[in-house]
Amino acid sequence: MFKHILGAAAVAALLSVGCSSSSDSTTPATADAGKTDSGVARPDSGTTPSADSGAPAATCEAPSTTPTFETPATLPPAAAWGQNKCQDATVQGFLDACLTGANASKAACDTWKAANANCAACLLTPKNAAAVGPFLTDPTVTADDQNPPGLVNDGFLSSITACLNHFKAGCGEKYFAFSNCLGAACDTDGNCKNASDADLDTCQEDAIGGGQGVCGQVAIAALGQNGACRGVFPQDAGTAPTGELCFSKGAAGGEDTSTDAGLVAFFKRFALQFCGQ
User: At what angle do helices 216-223 and 8-18 cross, to 10 degrees?
Assistant: First the structure.
């Protein structure tokens, strides 16, 4: 469900080094690697990645030509936050029946939706709705026990897109394209399948290449000085956290999405931003 992608601060720093004289460069960021335990990009970080001294040389390398990746269609506007349609326990019931529960199934999810119609309408919105919420469904996807709500098949990136667009229209789509480029450049390479996070970081840094790499232009379009997401994240907004709310808080914030409990905590908070009080 999640990709290991460098976060906004790390990308900003890389672009500022490579394009410091350009109007499309970023200002240096104060944080470094912005990934969560899940690997989903997050703008604030703790530390820069480092390889163990005894680790073998990295074999995961960025390609020399621009990879093929999905450029997402423009999503409808983001739905309002704080709709007060769902309570904490109701969202937990949704996760148990439809997404993360041990007994989640189409039948259980259908039963939950029937009993909680107002909350369900807020949590689950078709990808072509007038305004999209936290979990996007696809009319062409058949709901079954593997995907009880019939969600879009893009690894939760549409949900992050909708969340980022809450802060700035158009940011989500550019971030989605940037994430997909890095994913195509490194995550799908055969040598990268079992690479360490540090090796993947190196590959993605090379793919950005200070704005000159195979994913440099999409990085600039999303996070450069004039990028679509400029001002969304705290390191360049200089204010309270904004776009970082679209990403896991990681283990330190109780949202280690490599664990079942952390994944549930992240999904619940994410859903309640849109549909809670």
Answer: 110
Which amino acid, residue 145? D
CA distance readout (Å), 201 to 22, 198, 253: 24, 5, 22
pLDDT beyond 60 at 274: yes
Are 45 and 9 within 8 A, CB to CB? yes
| Torsion sign, CA atoms 142, 145, 150, 154 | negative
Give me the pLDDT at residue 219, please: 92
How confident is the model over 11-59, as pLDDT tens digits? Answer: 656 665 434 333 333 222 222 233 333 333 333 333 333 334 344 444 7
> Residue 231 is encoded by which pair of tokens?
């001002």
Q: How far, in whole angstroms, is CA 25 from its chain's centroid?
A: 22
Backbone angles phi, psi at 109, to 5 degrees: -65, -45
CA separation, residue 58 to residues 6, 42, 119, 183, 196 (Å): 17, 24, 47, 17, 9
3-state secondary structure of 270: helix
Neighbours of 196 (CB within 10 A): 17
pLDDT average, residue stretch 133-146: 93
Q: Report the C-alpha gap between 276 and 42 in whole angstroms.
A: 23
Taking CB atoms within 8 Å and a gap of at least 24, the contacts of 192-198 are 192/60, 195/58, 195/59, 195/60, 196/51, 196/55, 197/4, 197/35, 197/39, 197/49, 198/49, 198/50, 198/51, 198/52, 198/55, 198/58
Distance (Å) of CA 259 to CA 10, 147, 151, 250: 25, 20, 21, 11
Mean pLDDT of the chain: 79
Give 115's Cβ-side CA count (13 Å radius): 11
pLDDT recorded at residue 154: 78
Q: Sign (positive/negative) of CA torsion 195, 176, 166, 130?
A: negative
